[in-house]
Amino acid sequence: MTAPLPQPPPLLEFAIPGRLPALNELLAASAVHAAERVRGARWTRYSRVKRDASALVKISVPRGTPTIATRVDAGFAFWAHADRRDPDNVLAGAIKITLDALVSAGVLRDDSRKWIGNLYGIFYSVDKHGDERVEVTLWKSR
Questions:
Q1: From start to end of the chain, where are the E strands?
Q2: 3-state DSSP call for residue 84?
Q3: Exposed (0-12), middle (13-18) or buried (19+): which is 99, by Cβ within 10 Å?
Q4: Pick the CATH number of 12-140 from 2.40.128, 3.30.1330, 3.40.50, 3.30.1490
Q5: DSSP 3-state of 29
Q6: Strands 116-125 and 72-80, bridge-based pairing
Q7: Cβ atoms within 10 Å, residue 54
């Protein structure tokens, strides 16, 4: 396995406090349980989870961040207490929530392959007194 290529100076860097929902949490929120067979209940729970996580991302972006009008690579550094969540699920959930929120906030034009290049994820452990967070970095894609 090779290390990621060195990146040019970042276009945007910010930290999201706490943790974002993992893919399994998003899927569970979209599942319909027998007790919830009310029309729209499935999307209401999912929408609430996604809305709350997206709001956390949006308030973490520096004020006055202009729209990035170029294709970008995105890096995600997860600082978390040792937990049982699978890294692939954590990364997938963070990518979905963060990119959608950045598009909604007008920071990115779109989250399609036209505008998003490579995605990177790395995981770090913090001690029990450390702050959990997700550090997001966007670079101009090569």
A1: 12-17, 72-80, 116-125, 133-140
A2: coil
A3: buried
A4: 3.30.1330
A5: helix
A6: parallel
A7: 21
Classified as helix, coil or strand, 111 is: coil
Please write the tens of the pLDDT for every residue from 86-141. 899 999 999 999 999 999 999 999 999 999 999 999 999 887 788 999 999 999 99
Q: Which of 56, 77, 73 is nearest to 135 (CA)?
A: 77
Cα angle 3-68-5, degrees, rounded to a multiple of 5: 10
- Global confidence as pTM: 0.85
Residue with tokens 């006055």: 64
Tokens of 89: 């699920």
Q: Which of 22, 26, 13 is nearest to 91 (CA)?
A: 22
